[in-house]
User: Fold this.
Amino acid sequence: MNYFEEALLRLKQQLKVRDDKDVAVILGISAAALNMRKKRGNFPETELYALAAKRPDLRLDVGLVLHGDRLTPDQRVALAVTAAYPPAGIPDAAAQGVRMFLELNDKRRAQYQRIGEILDDCSDDAVELVMQLVDKLHQVEIKARR
Assistant:
C-alpha cells in the first residue's frame, strides 16, 4: 500500500465512508479527479485542509490523515507554517517565528497552543495571511523599540 492509499484509507475511516466516490463528493471533487490523483500519487491535501476548515463538525484530524499519527499542537503549527511557506522559500520572519514557537517559554505555552489549535482549522491561505500579519506586527514592534 502506498502513501496515497494509506492516507485515503485513514480519511475514509474519519469520514465513516467506504467508497472513493463518497470521499470525492465530500472533498468537492469528482470521482474521476480523485482517481487521476490516485494514479499520480497526488493526495488532495488542499481539498482536505479546506474541508477541515469548512466542516469543523467533522472533527477531521488532518495530521492523522496525512501522516498516520496524531500531531501535538506544536507539530500542527509547524506543519501549517511549512505548508504555507515551502522549506526552500521560508522568509526570515517566518523561519524566526517557527524557531520561536519551537523554543516556547512556559509563560506563553498556553497562548501558543491556542494559536496552534485555531490555525489547525484554517486553510493554507488563511495561515499565510496570519503569517503576513505577524510579520507586519513584528516590524512595528522592532520600529517601536528603536
Notes: The chain has a mean pLDDT of 80. The chain has two domains: 3-61, 73-145. The longest helix spans residues 124-145.
